[in-house]
Amino acid sequence: MITIQNYVQAESLEQAWQLNQKRSARVLGGMLWLKMGKNTVGTAIDLCRLGLDTIEERADAFVIGAMVTLRQLEQHPGLNACTRGAVAKALQPIVGVQFRNLATAGGSIWGRFGFSDVLTLFLALDAKVELYKGGVMPLERFAALPYDRDILVRLIVPKTSCRLAYEAMRIQRTDLPVLTCAVAQTGGETRAVIGARPGKAMVVRDANGLLHNGVTTESAAAFADYVAGQVPMGSNNRGSAAYRSHLCRVLTRRATLELGG
């Protein structure tokens, strides 16, 4: 359990940013992982009064506030229509409804957790993040950066990137995943995103044009082999590196065939 010495509901992003410059400060998301720590938080910064809990559907993109919950994403009709239900499929196995009612998109992405279905999903969606000081940048770039004291404000998902298929393997339905996989197509480019390796999700593009002539059983298998060869795997109590490499081939092939169907 953490100990919070001072709790502040920020009145503006500037105030939240200023408060967050102290090393002992923390921005609160859903608190679902933060509360499990054993450290002392000098100032807990709540963004609940800044209007960041909505999903705005624009002509070219979905704009998702940092305080939007995973349950809101899971149930959003526009996102699920655009992705043919892939958003709901990716999020529904995460623990339970009560958990997803609290966990936030911003907290999940800021954490860049190695086990994250959410990071895998949004990397596949070619999302961008909007930081208060850092501005707008691709999520792929943000995921590679070290942690700093900026504030994640929004996620931006272009509608052109919504063609994707999502797969994951869990030992039990609500457990953390053994491996996550999303395959997406945007502007003629096919990319796979593999997470829970166990490590931060990484993007692998079809650099060799294996799917250039379309998705067939053979081309999907070739792409799956290529992806598995590009992604470093590790072992933990959920599975060995060899098992994860096998899963990578299976899930990538399955998602590629679904995408091409």
What would you say this structure looks like, in words?
About 35% of the residues lie in helices and about 25% in strands. The protein is an alpha+beta fold and about 260 residues long. The protein has 3 domains: about 5-45, no CATH class; about 55-160, Uridine Diphospho-n-acetylenolpyruvylglucosamine Reductase, domain 3; about 165-260, 2-Layer Sandwich (Enolase-like, domain 1), CATH 3.30.390.50. The strands form 3 sheets. The protein has a 5-stranded antiparallel beta sheet with strand order 4-5-8-6-7. Strands 9-10-11-12 form a 4-stranded antiparallel beta sheet, with helices on both faces. Helix 9 (about 215-230) runs antiparallel to helix 10. The longest helix has 20 residues, at about 240-260. It is globular and about 60 Å long. The model has no long low-confidence stretch (mean pLDDT about 95). Keywords: Flavoprotein, Oxidoreductase.
- Name of the CATH architecture of the largest domain: 2-Layer Sandwich
> pLDDT under 50 segments (min length 5)?
none
CATH topology of the largest domain: Uridine Diphospho-n-acetylenolpyruvylglucosamine Reductase, domain 3
Mind summarizing the main beta sheet?
5 strands, antiparallel
Global structural class: alpha+beta
Report the β-strand fraction as a percent range: 25-35%
Taking the alpha carbons of the first and last residues, their distance comes to 48 Å
Cα radius of gyration in angstroms: 18 Å
